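F.,

This is the one I mentioned.
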């Protein structure tokens, strides 16, 4: 049985591009949940996700991060 990947979608804030405006988690965000807060810096979250096996796909103000589940 194939398991769906973990996916985190981040929309950057329109007021401050360096901060999180909205987010959505499908599956698990692993140890990075503490960085997932509206208004929190995007940079800290991205570094955490990448260090924990997520792959990034970013386009404009939307970032999609995914990792296969084991």
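My design for it:
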């Amino acid at each position: 049985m194939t398991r769906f990947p973990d996916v985190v979608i981040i929309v950057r804030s329109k007021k401050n591009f360096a901060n999180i405006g909205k987010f959505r988690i499908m599956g698990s965000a692993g140890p990075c949940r503490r960085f997932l807060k509206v208004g929190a810096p995007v940079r800290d979250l991205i570094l955490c996700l990448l260090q924990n096996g997520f792959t990034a796909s970013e386009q404009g103000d939307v970032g999609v991060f995914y990792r296969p589940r084991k």
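The radius of gyration is 12 Å.

Talk soon.
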